[in-house]
């Protein structure tokens, strides 16, 4: 089961662009492992950019999906997996 939020988060990433920690609802989460990542192509005819997605596990064993446009820096939290 999962819950969707699609809310902005403050995120720090490593040199390769992978998230290493993020702050959501005032709490700092440290990424223990990137479980998966992928790129989705937006509706290019509508001007939507490609987005890079990450499914991560935090040190407290939470699983989250984060994404950002490949051409931008604004990170968003899409989903929390229960």
Give structural notes.
This protein has strands at 2-13, 19-24, 27-40, 51-58, 63-69, 75-81. It has 82 residues and is mostly beta strands. The chain has one domain (2-81). A six-stranded antiparallel beta barrel has the order 1-2-3-4-5-6. The chain is globular, with a radius of gyration of 12 Å. The N and C termini lie close together (5 Å).
Q: What does the secondary structure layout of this molecule look like, with pairings?
A:
Blueprint: E1 2-13, E2 19-24, E3 27-40, E4 51-58, E5 63-69, E6 75-81
Antiparallel strand pairs: 1-2, 1-6, 2-3, 3-4, 4-5, 5-6
Give the gist of this structure.
The protein has strands spanning 2-13, 19-24, 27-40, 51-58, 63-69, 75-81. The chain has 82 residues and is mainly β.
How many individual domains?
A: 1
| Rg, Å, rounded | 12 Å
Along the chain, the helix and strand elements come as EEEEEE
Instruction: Note poorly predicted spans.
Output: none
Q: Give a count of the beta strands, DSSP E runs of length 2 or more.
A: 6
Largest sheet: 6 strands, antiparallel, barrel
Strand order within the widest sheet? 1-2-3-4-5-6
Inertia-based shape: globular
The rounded distance between the terminal residues' Cα atoms is 5 Å
Structural class computed from helices and strand pairing: mainly beta
Q: Helical content, roughly?
A: under 10%
Mean pLDDT value: 94
